[in-house]
Amino acid sequence: MPSLTSPARAPRPARGARRGGPVGDAALPAPGSAAPVRRRGRTVFRYAFALPSILLVLLFFAIPFIANGLFAFTRWTGYSSVITWDGLSNFRLLQQLGVLSHATEVTAIYAVTSMLVQNVVGLALALAMQRTTRGNSVFRSLFFIPVLISPLAAGYIWSAALATNGPVNAVISVFVPGGFHYAWLGHNLSALICVACVDAWKWTGLVTLVYIAGLNRIPERISEAALLDGAGPWRRLRSVTFPLLAPALTFNVVITLVGAFSALDVVFSTTGGGPGDATAVLNVALYNEYGQSFFGMASSLGFVITLLVVLTAVPLITWLRRREVQM
Amino acid sequence: MNARPEKRPWLRYGLLGLFAVPWIGIPLWMLLVNSFKTQGDASVLSLGLPSHWNLVGNYRTVIDQGSYFTGLGNSLLIAIPTILAVLLLGSMAAWSYARSRSRSLRVAYYCTTLSIVLPPAIIPTVYVLTQLGLNGSRLGYMLTIAGTRLGVVVFLATGFIRTLPVDFEEAAALDGAGKWQIYRRMILPLLAPVLVTASVMLIISVWNDFFFALFLLPNTNESTLPLTLYQFASTSTHGVAWNLVFAHVVLSSLPLLIAYVFLQRRVLSGLTEGGVTG
């Protein structure tokens, strides 16, 4: 996503120069006064075209986003009609209840696991299916299927597959003498990891396509040159492919991580937050507070998600972009 | 495309196939085959064929008790106008953002693209909708979905329009074409490939949305498919009945899967070539 800005930057200086007025406009035979009028007319229609979109984004994204930063610090419940400033007490209370740091930690583990699985599997699949051949197209469309299934449905499928008597254990039992009956979703850590993997399973197909697009954007001549220089396949992968794949990597890592911070659906349909609260990510905790009409505290948890996103995405983008190689 | 012939494609295909079995094959087969079984059979979660086929019974139960058609109707009623509106309004705004030098429009553009990365603030959204008198209504849900999904369309379309030369638009304007005409006759057709990519992403995210629906659509008669699936699977009598839950999962996933069977080429090439990464 970041690299879309770079091709766009090219025409800008030209237009910027024309904006200076005298230089560009002097060339026009039109009388001097015509230009500003036409320009103003143009600007009005620009605003008119953008207005519906701006209003929607403002009302349903920007205003709620900013309001969340305020509501997080208020006492606001369904039991009283007044909303009052309450400082940090929501966070303090959530911490005392054992929700705040626990849910944050669970969310972080969930998001990192999901991000790693998606990117490792997605990259491996992309390398294996990079070329657009008939056989690869079949596999590409096969591996894309989970993306179309709702995360909720993915959760139901895998909670059955991971059940004690489910196919996952059945397959493992083939290799383990005496059978294998592990309750994947019944133990705290394995439940969290498994739920994160289900989330990853659902989205890996999309990550794969982004990597394929990135791989096919690498000029053939560069890998050919490396080949002629005697670089082996591993060396070509490490020294040519990976550095030039960096924009796709940046995009995938950031999008998958940020997306997983706001996870809810997969948790709802697999463990519902359990066992205990082992998989209660921030949004699940938020829904619980909302369900009890503690809107202020729910906002506080939403604010923590925002903080997580901003505090990881910004440094991550900066760091990853600095490592990107310009072609 | 590639001059070098591949040395061992079958080894690669073999490995891909080997991976596809547990990754795609087993879960989907388990889903399908168990949705045909009786409850007792399905509770074993085996991968074998049903000893007793209960296909009609299961799917009829889902349709009768799982409010499948309510969900399908609501999903269609919500997704189609929302996605069309997002494509139209997003591409209109993108044209402005791509061509304007105005500072305020630039701020609006960045604000809109930020909505792709930043998490939705659901509680204040409920508050805003309540203030507008739209809380709990389909319209409120649709507007919220539109406001949070515009970012993708605006981002992709603005980037694309910026690469197009402005001369044609100016020529058309000199010939007396109106702004709407230029947008309708020039910009929109040129944007077609970008809008295909955007609609694929929109359809996947809007059709499968559960998060916003959970908060914004509390009335069961307005439930979308993911909500009806959740309500069906959460009721204690069905929750343990994998055959019924699976039948609902199959039916809920069917519309997109059917569309995918016919459009997979467009979908995949749209996503790989449509410039998700730019």
From TrEMBL, chain A:
Sorted alphabetically, which keywords does the UniProt record give? Answer: Cell membrane, Membrane, Transmembrane, Transmembrane helix, Transport
GO cellular component terms given for this protein: plasma membrane
Domain of life from the UniProt record: Bacteria
The protein's predominant localisation is membrane
Q: Does the keyword Hydrolase apply?
A: no
Report membrane topology.
Answer: Multi-pass membrane protein
CDD domains assigned to the protein according to its UniProt record, in alphabetical order: TM_PBP2
Sorted alphabetically, the Gene Ontology BP terms of this entry are: transmembrane transport
Subcellular localization is given as:
Cell membrane
Pfam families, per this entry?
Answer: BPD_transp_1
**Sequence segments annotated as region (Disordered):** 1-35
Q: Which residues form a coiled coil?
A: none
Can you tell me where the transmembrane regions are? 47-67, 108-129, 141-161, 181-201, 244-264, 294-320
Q: Where is the ABC transmembrane type-1 domain?
A: 104-316
Report the family membership. Answer: Belongs to the binding-protein-dependent transport system permease family.
Q: What is this protein called?
A: Sugar ABC transporter permease
From TrEMBL, chain B:
Q: Which UniProt keywords apply?
A: Cell membrane, Membrane, Transmembrane, Transmembrane helix, Transport
**Major site of localization recorded for this protein:** membrane
Q: How does it sit in the membrane?
A: Multi-pass membrane protein
Q: Where in the cell is it found?
A: Cell membrane
A Gene Ontology biological process in which this protein takes part is: transmembrane transport
Q: Where are the transmembrane segments?
A: 12-32, 76-95, 107-129, 141-165, 186-207, 240-263
Q: Which SUPFAM superfamilies match?
A: MetI-like (SSF161098)
Does the keyword Metal-binding feature in the UniProt annotation?
no
> Is Metal-binding found in the keyword set?
no
| Ranges of residues in domain ABC transmembrane type-1 | 72-263
InterPro entries, per the entry = MetI-like, MetI-like_sf
Task: Identify the GO cellular component terms for this protein.
Answer: plasma membrane
Q: Which family does it belong to?
A: Belongs to the binding-protein-dependent transport system permease family.
Protein name, per record: Carbohydrate ABC transporter permease
Organism the protein comes from? Actinospica acidithermotolerans
Give the lineage.
Bacteria, Bacillati, Actinomycetota, Actinomycetes, Catenulisporales
